[in-house]
Amino acid sequence: MSTPGKPANQSNTGEIHRETFAAQAGGPVDRETGAITPPIHLTTTYERDGDLNYPKGFIYGRPDNATIRQAETVITRLEAGHDTLLFPSGMAAATTAILALDPPAHIVAPRVMYWSLRNWLATAAPRFGIETTFVDTTNLDAIRAARQPGKTRLIWLETPANPLWNITDIEAAAKIAHDVGAVLAVDSTCASPALTQPLTHGADIVMHSATKYLNGHSDVLAGSLTFKENNPALAMMERAASHRASLGAILGPVEAALLLRGMRTLFVRVRHQSATALDIAGSMAANPAVAQVLYPGLPDHTGHVIAKRQMSGGFGGMLSIRIAAGEAAAIRTAAALKVWKRATSLGGVESLVEHRASIEGADSPCPPDLLRLSVGLENPADLIADLDNALQKSVINN
Length: 398
Hints:
By secondary structure, this protein is α/β, with parallel strands linked by helices. The chain is about 35% helix and about 15% strand. Helix 6 links the parallel strand 4 (about 150-160) and strand 5 (about 185).
């Protein structure tokens, strides 16, 4: 509620709300033309002055770009961070953060997490002198036990964790990390800054696959790292920025402009998707063809209390359902859906369904009877009816 006499879009400190900042893409109007949509800076190089210096601060397109800077500024404000680096994918962002560690290094990471990053940590990271212990990060004692004093440099969390939607206590995990001099990084892709700000809960770095909710339209690949203003985080940021410049792993300016476009509607999209996901979760919990609904917004979810504490405005647009008749029925259910689209990814305006065990393979911790659901912006009744019809068909054909 706004303070009497104060504009509704201002906080008590006089600073505009994050929703306003995002909706206006950071606020600046183009000085030259008055355009309210930010221009796209496509140049790869910049003119020196007569003294062969760069007075405007830009040198070359590989390490820096004005459009990219503006998108980074918006994400930094949304996450209450010190600074942000943008990358051409979520995997590029995550792996750059890990390669910014001083080897040899040990990482503690979740057993349930984004599969591509888990696979990279297990198979590729050791070649760079980085070893990973995978634990159930919802069990704080397991995180403590996995630490290797003097060697553990990073604890990596994902919360809610794809695709079982486990919830980890960020504040408690941060203390466990800091007690041994480690940095805490949080993949907050599925919460988005509309619902959770990990840095305000004690994390040092927050990572996003910006392809998902930040962009929100399934038309951009992007990743981000936002850093807190403290010594270990800023040291990692400097190394990550150096890696990005050396390897040419910066986001393109057109993609940055599309990301800015997407973030303008972040809050309204995520709140709508969260409300619809809660409706779907409740409906599926009452469907006899569904053995279990995994969604942190349900009171019987094991992480519900923690989620209420560190998520504000909803519990996200992602949920999973386990089909009572097993794997074959789960696949038949996905095949029978009409409104939901069978596709990888999440966080877009369209609703997607995926049988994750088939995608992840034999080593997946994902149950074979599970379908992952990414809720879009469609009418909730259409989405629920489509699921009900597909579930009924899968039972009849069993």
